[in-house]
């Protein structure tokens, strides 16, 4: 009902966390503006999950569509929130919004600060993932992938990158580089199945053997990771190509070598393992070697984007340690350490709360819980007589800034156009890979655009 009293809230970021947060708010008396940097919703569910997981992606898209069709959820795609964005946090208060939930994911890239990191052939996994999933502007960026690639990190992202290098580039060798031992493998069995057939098992056995004594000294059983990997290899899909895949344990990158700005090797230091506060840690032994690679990809997790305009520390936005509105003991409140108080009305959830943590289901739950924290906060305020007026003011402001914002109707049109194009080309799916093409497909021919 138009004249019903409601709260007015913004959710910034329409990945799984933001979408499910929007649903939670919308079903509890809140009019929600869901603002998203990308034209399409879904975040890493659309632009991170490996392209061949078609069924999973379609299932998620269907859930997201249902949320966007809720009458209290209003989608504004192609709109960046941040210091230099199309909107900043101050704008929301001026427009009459009562709270802002930030669910922008972890858009910053985490680097090790090594000599040689800026050379051609050194990339961050997330940028490459966005590239092969056709997210503008990464879709148009050139990635020079050679024949011998080091991937730093041994989580699920390393597996996805290795899968991509095998299936799309048929590289000669992928070397996954792990600073700790086989006991600290982060990838999951199910994901590893995509690359397991390419693993050089003789090399893997030698690596386990080399780590075994140290593992036993720490109370670890070297047979456990070995059996885990072998159980996947036995059931793995047939090899997708001739790429040799090896994992080097207990080495840390120290320098990227190059000639004429192009990578020629990765220097690593051998580590030894030790226990500290019950955690297995690695320290350098001083012994170095050079891995013969021409490409280095960091798959070591991401950090939040400091341009959003929230206080950050390390790879995270700063949260209130003593939350006023905790949910399951977790703080969703942004905290300004300089001012010594929470940032009034501003909350974080999903990968924006804890960078690079968990699957879609985890982000969904965190989004819902973040929304519950927002609801507790809103209930300390008065609902508005005409919450929808705030949405009108938001649209007027975006128009006055000549910003093309994408609505649900636009998205449905885009979906139809991509489906048609896939049929014409006889493909299982088709994605327009630039904002220009997407905007054109939706009929925006003369309006300005900010990205790509
Ligand atoms: C390579 C990779 C593969 C993965 N594969 C799987 C998988 O197979 N299965 C699985 O369950 N999980 C997978 N995950 C994990 C899953 O994708 C994440 O858990 C989940 O997407 C995180 O959700 P989120 O909403 O917190 O952030 P994101 O999904 O990152 O969404 C953030 C949203 O915020 C928007 N945004 C960013 N900055 C701004 C801004 N300044 N202003 C406005 N909007 C902004 C973005 O456009 C995006 O839509 C994968 C992750 C990665 C990195
Ligand atoms: N298909 C899927 O389901 C899928 C695909 C991709 C991602 N995801 C999910 O997305 C999340 C993020 O994945 P992720 O692979 O980025 O993270 P992750 O699982 O945390 O793995 C990160 C890897 O990087 C290493 N690392 C971190 N900092 C380092 C440093 N300073 N120096 C050297 N190595 C470093 C870690 O080693 P240490 O252990 O020593 O810290 C670890 O091996 C996970 O929850 C994952 O499950 C899921």
Characterise the protein shown here.
By secondary structure, the chain is an alpha/beta fold. It folds into two domains: 7-107 and 303-441, Rossmann fold; 111-300, 3-Layer(bba) Sandwich (FAD/NAD(P)-binding domain). The protein has helices spanning 16-26, 44-47, 54-68, 89-94, 125-132, 156-169, 189-192, 201-217, 223-235, 360-378, 387-400, 408-425, 435-441, and strands at 7-12, 30-36, 73-77, 99-102, 108-109, 122-124, 148-152, 173-177, 244-248, 251-259, 262-276, 279-291, 295-298, 302-303, 312-313, 316-317, 333-336, 341-348. A six-stranded mixed sheet has the order 3-2-1-4-18-17. It has a five-stranded parallel sheet with strand order 6-13-7-8-9. Helix 1 (16-26) packs parallel to helix 10 (360-378). The two termini are 39 Å apart. NADP nicotinamide-adenine-dinucleotide phosphate binds at residues 112, 152-158, 160, 178-180, 184, 186, 191, 299-301, 356-359.
The protein's oligomeric status is: single chain
Query: Major sheet, described briefly?
Result: 6 strands, mixed
| Class derived from helix and strand content | alpha/beta
How much helix is in the residues?
Answer: 25-40%
Portion in strands: 15-25%
Number of strands: 18
Nearest-integer average pLDDT: 96
**Small molecules held by this entry:** flavin-adenine dinucleotide, NADP nicotinamide-adenine-dinucleotide phosphate
Shape: globular
CATH homology group of the largest domain: NAD(P)-binding Rossmann-like Domain
Main CATH class of the largest domain: Alpha Beta
CATH topology of the largest domain: Rossmann fold
Main sheet: strand order: 3-2-1-4-18-17
CATH architecture of the largest domain: 3-Layer(aba) Sandwich
């Amino acid at each position: 009902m138009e004249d019903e009293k409601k709260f007015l809230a913004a959710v910034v970021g329409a990945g799984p966390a933001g979408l499910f947060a929007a649903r939670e708010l919308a079903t509890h008396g809140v009019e929600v503006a869901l603002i998203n940097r990308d034209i399409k919703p879904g975040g890493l569910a659309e632009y991170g999950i490996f392209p061949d997981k078609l069924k999973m992606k379609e299932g998620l898209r269907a859930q997201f569509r249902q949320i966007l069709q809720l009458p209290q959820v209003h989608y504004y795609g192609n709109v960046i929130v941040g210091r230099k964005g199309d909107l900043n946090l101050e704008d929301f208060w001026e427009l009459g919004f009562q709270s802002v939930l930030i669910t922008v994911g972890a858009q910053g890239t985490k680097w090790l600060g090594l000599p040689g990191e800026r050379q051609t052939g050194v990339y961050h996994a997330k940028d490459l993932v966005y590239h092969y999933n056709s997210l503008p502007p990464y879709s148009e960026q050139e990635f020079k992938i050679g024949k011998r690639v080091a991937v730093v990190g041994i989580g699920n992202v390393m597996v996805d990158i290795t899968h991509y290098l095998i299936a799309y580039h048929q590289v000669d060798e992928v070397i996954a580089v792990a600073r700790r031992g086989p006991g600290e493998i982060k990838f999951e069995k199910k994901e590893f199945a995509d690359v397991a057939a390419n693993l050089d098992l003789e090399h893997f056995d030698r690596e386990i053997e080399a780590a075994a004594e140290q593992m036993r000294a720490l109370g670890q059983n070297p047979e456990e990771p070995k059996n885990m990997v072998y159980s996947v290899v036995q059931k793995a899909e047939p090899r997708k190509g001739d790429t040799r895949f090896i994992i080097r344990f207990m080495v840390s990158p120290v320098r990227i070598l190059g000639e004429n700005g192009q990578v020629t090797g990765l220097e690593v230091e051998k580590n030894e393992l030790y226990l500290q506060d019950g955690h297995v840690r690695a320290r350098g032994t001083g012994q170095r070697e050079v891995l013969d690679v021409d490409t280095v990809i960091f798959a070591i997790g991401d950090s939040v984007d400091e341009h959003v305009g929230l206080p950050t520390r390390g790879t995270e936005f700063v949260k209130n340690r003593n939350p006023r509105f905790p949910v399951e003991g977790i703080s969703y409140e942004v905290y300004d350490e300089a001012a010594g108080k929470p940032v009034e009305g501003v909350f974080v959830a999903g990968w924006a709360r804890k960078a690079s943590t968990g699957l879609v289901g985890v982000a969904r739950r965190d989004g819902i819980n973040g929304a519950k924290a927002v609801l507790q906060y809103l209930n300390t305020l008065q609902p508005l007589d005409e919450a929808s007026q705030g949405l009108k003011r938001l649209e007027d402001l975006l128009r006055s800034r000549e910003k093309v914002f994408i609505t649900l109707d636009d998205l449905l049109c885009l979906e139809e156009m991509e489906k048609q194009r896939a049929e014409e080309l006889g493909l299982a799916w088709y994605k327009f890979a630039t904002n220009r093409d997407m905007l054109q497909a939706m009929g925006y021919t003369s309006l300005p655009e900010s990205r790509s």
